[in-house]
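Consortium newsletter contribution from the modelling node. Members have asked for a concrete example of what our holo predictions look like. Here is one, prepared for the S-adenosylmethionine complex that several groups have been discussing at recent meetings.
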Amino acid sequence: MQAVQPWFADIGETTGGYDGIPFEAAPLDLAAIFGNDRPVDLEIGCGKGQFAAEYAAQNPQRNLLAVEINGNVIVQAAEKAKAASLGNLRFLRIGAQHIGVLLKKDSIQRIFLNFSCPFPKKRQQKRRLTHPDFLELYRGFLAQDGLLMQKTDNAQLFEFSLCALSGCGFVLREVSLDLHHSAVEGNIMTEYEQRFTALGQPIYYLKAQKHGRD
Ligand SMILES: C[S@@+](CC[C@H](N)C(=O)[O-])C[C@H]1O[C@@H](n2cnc3c(N)ncnc32)[C@H](O)[C@@H]1O
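And here is the predicted structure:
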């Protein structure tokens, strides 16, 4: 892991603390991690980091923290960032369910959920990254008026997300049932998006904004 430092940290490898997170890691000092006070965005489930690397390259005035539960793929992602010398991109291996304790209130401006696992069975619904439990967790660290973007090929997950976001104090700003034939500009393709697009599948897309509750 030394080879991909400082691009990569593995919270899951440490012992002690709670939920596998060492006490000394929480909360993260994002300004120290990135070496500046620029806005920080978060990608959850970044896979091999194709989107993360391109987003960081296109947005040098922003920082991106990318998290992923699978240690094998996230190391490949960190290697990409290192090869491109992307100083505004950092990776953390951790399950999304634990990030709440790591991120301070209002510390994240944008959240990206790209082709999250759909968990189609009813008993798995709580693992969907747009389940109301996750949305409440995101509200804790997402800035007021912060944004959440989701892309998926899965209609069932998309419908679930639309309902969950509407019920959890988010306002839907953009919705497309076919992103690649929509007016939405500046899309950055992910690895899974390329695969689904090659199969001729439409990509569902939404942009939601956090709102204070009345
Ligand atoms: C279908 S892949 C999509 C990868 C990438 N975002 C893309 O679009 O090419 C979903 C990724 O989410 C990760 N993942 C699933 N549940 C997660 C969780 N609770 N926390 C962090 N990552 C998770 C998986 O390990 C997997 O790499």
